[in-house]
Structures are given as structure tokens and as C-alpha cells.
Design goal:
The protein is α+β, with helices and mostly antiparallel strands. It contains two helices and ten strands. About 15% of the residues lie in helices and about 35% in strands. The protein has a six-stranded antiparallel sheet with strand order 2-10-9-1-3-6. A four-stranded antiparallel sheet has the order 7-5-4-8, with no helix packed on it. The chain has a single domain (about 5-155), classed as Cyclic Phosphodiesterase, Chain: A (Alpha-Beta Complex), CATH 3.90.1140.10.
């Protein structure tokens, strides 16, 4: 199985190397969905740190709820796709200048990107509310080859002005 990653923001602070069940993600918004890379993980970490150095923190606004998924049974809160949200997504798309990222669902990147936060059992975003994005995290989708777990590899504070 190819190693896969996601870049997301967690709304509640997570400890570095936090490891959690695939079924119990903490509340988050994904800025770059499942992808594989064609170069070393250390290089990806370096490139994400460089991006975080120039990207400024920003706010997002939650909108209404809808359902995603093949059976439309995954409740999500949509995030307004304003300039800040799309800037972050598009800057992340530019990280692999050599085109070496392979996306599981390429139809949901760039123009197909629909920013959202999946409603959790005990937590969700509320429509009309504004939330601060001050960091992004790189998540390992198969830590130690375990498809049932997720692990935060690194969190990058957005430091741009």
C-alpha cells in the first residue's frame, strides 16, 4: 500500500505525533485531500514549513450543513470558499512543482475543492460562525501500515504577514 497523506487544520490543539482512530478524527478542515508523494517525506515537511513561513493566519466562516459521500450519509459543515481558503488550497497544490503528487480524488482539488468540516459525534462547526486558522498539519493516513489509524507527523504555524 502506498503511503498517503493529508494536510488539514485541527480546531482543537493536537499534540505532535497524535495518533487516532480513522473512525474518530478530531474536528478538522482538510486543505489538501489524500495524496501520495514521489519524493522523501523530509522534503515534503521542508516544503510545508517554507509555505507556512509565508502564509498568514486567516479566518474561515462556516456555512450550512449538507451531506457528502456515495450514499450522502456523511454530514459536513461547508466552509465559505473565500480568497483565504482558496489561497491555502492552491498554495498546497503548488508544493509538488514536479507534479509528483498523486491524488485519490483529483476531482475534489482545485476547482472541485469543496472546503468543509465533517460533523463529529461530539463536535462540529456552526453555520455563520468564524474560526481562526493559525496552523496546518501533515497527517499520515497509514501510520505503521495500519489503515485503521491516523497520525499527525508535523504541525506548521502560519507565520506570514
Amino acid at each position: 500500500m502506498s503511503q498517503k497523506y493529508v494536510v488539514a487544520h485541527f480546531f482543537d490543539p493536537q499534540v505532535p505525533a497524535a495518533n487516532f482512530s480513522a473512525a474518530a478524527w478530531p474536528l478538522h478542515v482538510t486543505f489538501l485531500p489524500n495524496f501520495t508523494i514521489g519524493w522523501p517525506l523530509a522534503e515534503l515537511i521542508h516544503k510545508l514549513d517554507e509555505l507556512a513561513a509565508v502564509a498568514a493566519p486567516f479566518d474561515i466562516t462556516a456555512e450550512g450543513q449538507t451531506a457528502f459521500g456515495v450514499n450522502e450519509d456523511v454530514l459536513v459543515t461547508l466552509i465559505r470558499p473565500d480568497d483565504n481558503v482558496m489561497y491555502m488550497h492552491r498554495k498546497l497544490l503548488l508544493v509538488p512543482h514536479d507534479g509528483s503528487f498523486t491524488y485519490d480524488t483529483p476531482q475534489f482539488i482545485d476547482r472541485g475543492f469543496r472546503p468543509h468540516a465533517t460533523v463529529q459525534k461530539d463536535n462540529r462547526l456552526h453555520g455563520g460562525q468564524t474560526y481562526h486558522i493559525g496552523d496546518i498539519s501533515l497527517v499520515d493516513m497509514y501510520p505503521n501500515d495500519d489503515i485503521n489509524r491516523r497520525a499527525i507527523i508535523a504541525t506548521f504555524s502560519l507565520r506570514g504577514v
